[in-house]
């Protein structure tokens, strides 16, 4: 069981805090001979597998490194186009590492704003007045839990589907936010949270939740 990440979104839908706590690694590195038996395509400024799943390499996985050197989107470490490089027989045999694309800061901002909109839509679709909006989204690999305060701040936790005690954890994160962000004289409401004590106490709370599940009284 694990807690993957924490997001804090202000009432306008802006991402004001994000922490990647644990990221499961599913990278696969293999050495290939020419011709490459995978179909690669450019997608969103990166090169991804479009066809030819094998040996842990899946459709949608991105090219992360070539010959041990990290790629930069669609370009190799020395600035060459990845697709052009891999189409040249002279560059083989070649070692390629594939894996899930890591979200950029801009992508995290965009996704937080999108969830804010979905939350509002969920509230409006409710047949009852005063719906809380989306409290949980569930997939086969993770659950997204959301807690919105009376002032409109949203705390979101992405966790393993088997992880327990997330509701209590969300309330604990709210307490930490109140104690170490709101009471910080240098913090402005609705602005990004940059507070070392907030970081330290949040990470401690996540570790406690992973090991012990629900928080007990007075924790």
Overall mean pLDDT score?
Answer: 89
What is the helix tally? 4
Distance between the termini: 21 Å
Radius of gyration: 21 Å
Known CATH architecture of the largest domain: 2-Layer Sandwich
So what's the CATH class of the largest domain?
A: Alpha Beta
By helix and strand content, what is the structural category?
A: alpha+beta
Strand % is 25-35%
Helix content: 25-40%
Helix-strand topology string: EEEEEEEHEHEEEHH
Shape: elongated
Number of strands: 11
Can you summarize the main beta sheet? Answer: 5 strands, antiparallel
In order across it, which strands form the biggest sheet?
2-1-11-10-9
InterPro entries: Longin-like_dom_sf, TRAPPC
Keywords: Cell membrane, Endoplasmic reticulum, ER-Golgi transport, Golgi apparatus, Membrane, Postsynaptic cell membrane, Synapse, Transport
Family: Belongs to the TRAPP small subunits family. TRAPPC4 subfamily.
Main location: endoplasmic reticulum
Structure description:
By secondary structure, the chain is of the alpha+beta class. The protein has 2 domains: 3-23 and 104-211, Beta-Lactamase (2-Layer Sandwich), CATH 3.30.450.70; 27-99, Roll (Pdz3 Domain). 27% of the residues lie in helices and 26% in strands. The protein is built from 4 helices and 11 strands, in the order E-E-E-E-E-E-E-H-E-H-E-E-E-H-H. The strands form 3 sheets. Strands 2-1-11-10-9 form a 5-stranded antiparallel β-sheet. Strand 4 and strand 5 form a beta hairpin. The relative contact order is 0.17. The model has no long low-confidence stretch (mean pLDDT 89). This is Trafficking protein particle complex subunit. Keywords: Cell membrane, Endoplasmic reticulum, ER-Golgi transport, Golgi apparatus, Membrane, Postsynaptic cell membrane, Synapse, Transport. Pfam families: Sybindin. Its main location: endoplasmic reticulum. One of its GO terms (cellular component) is Golgi membrane.
């Amino acid at each position: 069981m694990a807690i993957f990440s924490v997001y804090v979104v202000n009432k306008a839908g802006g991402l004001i805090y994000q922490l990647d706590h644990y990221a499961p690694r599913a990278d696969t590195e293999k050495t290939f001979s020419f011709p490459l038996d995978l179909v690669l395509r450019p997608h969103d400024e990166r090169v991804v597998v479009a066809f030819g799943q094998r040996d842990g390499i899946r459709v949608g996985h991105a090219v992360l490194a070539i010959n041990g050197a990290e790629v930069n989107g669609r370009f190799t470490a020395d600035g060459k186009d990845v697709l052009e490089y891999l189409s040249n027989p002279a560059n083989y045999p070649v070692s390629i590492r594939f894996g899930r694309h890591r979200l950029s800061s801009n992508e995290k901002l965009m996704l937080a704003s999108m969830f804010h909109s979905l939350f509002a839509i969920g509230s409006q679709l409710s047949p009852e007045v005063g719906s809380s909006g989306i409290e949980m989204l569930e997939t086969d690999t993770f659950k997204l839990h959301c807690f919105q305060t009376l002032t409109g701040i949203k705390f979101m936790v992405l966790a393993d589907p088997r992880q327990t005690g997330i509701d209590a954890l969300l309330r604990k994160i709210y307490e930490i936010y109140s104690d170490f962000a709101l009471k910080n004289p240098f913090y402005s409401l609705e602005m990004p949270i940059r507070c070392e004590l907030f970081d330290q106490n949040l990470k401690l709370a996540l570790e406690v939740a992973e090991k012990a599940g629900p928080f007990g009284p007075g924790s």
